[in-house]
Fold these 3 entries.
Entry 1:
Amino acid sequence: MATVEVISPRTIRAKRIFKDLTREELRELARPGEKTSEYGSPVYATRVKNRSAKNTYVVGNGAPIGVMQQPIERDRAEETIREVQETLAGMELLQVDRRMGMSPEVPIHCRLYVPKDYARIAFMWHNMLFPSDSSKEPDFISVYVPDWKERLIFLDVDQGYTYILGTDYPAEAKKSMLRQAMYWIKRRGGLGLHAGSKVLRVIGPDGELRDVGFLLFGLSGTGKTTLTLHDHGLKEPERAIIKQDDVVLMTPEGEAFGTEDGFYIKTEGLEPSQTVLWGAATHPTAVYENIKLDDSGKVDFLDTSITSNGRGVVLRKYIKGTGEGIDLEKANKIVFITRRNDVVPVCARLTDEQAAAYFMLGESIETSAGDPTKAGQAKREVGTNPFIVGPEAEEGNRLLQIFRKNPEMEAYILNTGSVGASDGFPGEKVSIRVSTEIMKQIAKEGIGWEKDSDWGYEVPVNVPGVDLAKYDPKTYYTPEKYRELVDRLRGERRQWLGQFPGLDPAIPRAIEK
């Protein structure tokens, strides 16, 4: 094989590169690996069935990396790129160009290179974003080589590239572009957020109809997707308008630009009663991976024998309750969804500094679905975002700056777990109805608040339609036990926040009384 001189990590040469293929042409190329469902939608199987976070690295000697990120030496990255380019020179590739976002203020052009034999990856990713002009220079490129000799993913945010090697999991393409975009907006004074977005159009206390923009943060198992897609029982002229379910790009002014045209849904347990998603999930334009299909094409979303991480890409326009746009003019309400079971209240309203602290905590507990051996243990991820590049403290500091610049923005904790758990008692469960009603009343400004003496945030004293007496943590414990649990949780939080050098001191102080 002839040696190929490395011109640039972003310069890809191949035996042949197919460009500007339509959705239909990509599906046809992926046909050999397709099984067709009863709905006419394609179903594919992948060798790798999850993201390879432990094999993902940030190229060093460039942008500083964070505490939770793994570096790879630039020399090793460049040597690997040289080998990859030599391999690609003898292959047929697909080049897919797509645009991230709809706003002219977020003109992000993404380009994906995939071997022709893996057209299904290109096809699925094509459905995630918007049309773009392939003649333009891309902002970001990602290069897939699924049959590489080792599993290795590395990215350079300064040069805007990601190499995805040794895995055929399609979400690596999706996340590679979103990761780059989140860093892109951070360099422009904003912040990339791993959050769902929606608008609640409600009648306010003045009797006027108002649009209230929400961003919803939450780790897996907290109910973030459920709350993002919920209609809150609103009736015309009130309504819920779904914007995005994964990543938004926030400006210093509190605008939140959407990124995607397709939602990457988890299929486990999907059934007709989930009316918001079901229509899109059973539309012929849906694309699935690793779901159970019998010989006749009948789909069984309840069967997780292949994997509990079955996935699908569904188009926004077929999801009930989506509007035409994907952007929030203003993120009026920021909601950090957590799933705790003891002393965290059902809801709390935060100061700016507390908002930055709870963003940094990214807090929940492990579920049996996630890791049965750690079920019930605390689980934390800065910004509930595993795709941060750069020092984590920058993220919390930037969010605090945005809040201080936009005093009309408010932040909340929403506990979707339970309250008051102890030995032999799982706690008083917070139902979906309670969580959605609280969000609706936040939008309507229908909640009365008082300061909590232990944490300094505000807790509700009345929420229309919700019996708050059941959700007062102090009523489930003796004063001594309650103090023990509060002190233990505060200690865990102090330890977590202490990991991040450069964090504004006002942020860790905010978890004290």
Entry 2:
Amino acid sequence: MAEAKTQPTRIGVSEFLGRVEPAAKRHEGEVLAALFGKVTGVEPVMWGPSIVGYGEYATVYDSGRRVTMCRTAFSPRKARHSLYLSCGTPAEEAQFAPLLARLGKHGRGKGCLYVNKLADIDLGVLEEMIGLSWRNSFERYPA
């Protein structure tokens, strides 16, 4: 059975963030790392070459395939940051709707938010969203 493409690595988070370009994205990556760390209370781990993840859970798909993934994460990309939050179920969507309305300029994908730059959003609202996502992940995937 094939393994998940995104797995924990031995790359240091500080080492990775230190290589992010341009410098403004590097700084914002450091801000995100501090914010995610403050909310989750856990040390970050690199997942694959570019995802900074917090916590982990294991799940088994209907096919029988077992995967391990981080509970919440971000990736500081050149064009925009990807923020991976547990907000994909209808109940979670309803919880996140009022926060998304207050967040500021962002895009959406399945299970993630896209933010061009942190100045476009309210970091206090993002902090609330990370906390909600963190709690939701434990309801969905108990430790």
Entry 3:
Amino acid sequence: MSELSMGMLLLIIVVLTIISAYFAGSETAMMALNRYRLRHLANEGHRGARKANRLLQRPDRLLGVILVGNNIVIILAAFVASEVAERLLGDTAGPIVGAIVLTVYMLIFAEVTPKTVAAARPEALAFSSAYILQPLLKVSRPLVIFVNWISNLMAAPLIARTAEKSETLSVAELKTVLNEHTTIPRVHQDMIVGILDLENATVEDIMVPRAEIAGIDINDDTATILEAIESSQHTRLPVYREHIDDVVGILHLRRASRFTSRETFSKAALVRETEEPYFVPMSSALHTQLFNFRRQKRRVALVVDEYGEIQGMATLEDILEEIVGEFTTDFTSDLGEIHRQNDGSYVINGSVLVRDVNRALGWDLPTSGPRTMNGLVLEHLEAFPDGQVGVRIGRYAIETARITDNVIRTVKGIAL
């Protein structure tokens, strides 16, 4: 090496720096690739993506060829830099100063800079690098396999503990991807998240409570029954005798049009037009019930508890609203049940579901217990309040605002 000129030695260092920067950048770019987008591009026929995907099937060998190549380059650069330093500073100070200067130089130009660029544009570098890394891997396969064998032997205990992990996304991870790393319109994101949430919700979470079921008591007089049919805001009503537990069937109001006049009306005709009631357990997951509605060709179900007593009513529309949001034609829904105040707090109807409050306000009130705000506040108070009482639930301050008939009608809440 002594016969080479100083200019040639410096040129060799520059070339080795470029090669080292290539290896460092390729490593970062390959590891930073979005695996799902990579597979999509590979399936679409992108040649660079196909090669990169093939290399990433064995990341140990990919890293092996990159690190072996990079270390060889760095060792060569150290020899050349040592020669340059000895010529400039002598045999005593040259090696020490040369090592320090080379370390800083390589750190900046062969590590930090290329890796920063690669992290910002991984696809551009990774796809082009795949054309070089693939033949390099074939050429150096024996050495890479030997190095991998030793490293895998040493890493075996750690690999064994993580062997069961896969690249599949959990529901929570998929939600994060949808919310942060996608160009899908927000409304479509919300629909997809709604579908994913069906697995974690049950029929009990979306049913109309027993006390709020609108129906027809067949024992009422004709005028009352006709008024209930004509004023109904729903397309299907349960028909029962005296109480909902003695249900006769479900009446579709479209069928009721043929006997809505007092002259043609008869209770027997009304009963004949009803469908057999369809019962479902409270614990049914929403995604399961959605398929059951389709299989049974039903749109309305009466929800029963473990003792067979009717606790509420659920409809296909209720489940679909979990996905697409409110689309009911009920004019009372436009009045709103959550009202923002000037101080940043919210006045909330006590009958509103906790899940709906969380969805509307972005809160995270507990949903594993009571379904409504009324029930949630009572659970934390552990006694019925005599007047306005405040309670802290997580990071939210909730205050009872109006109480009638032993029910908390409205509450006032604010995030702390």
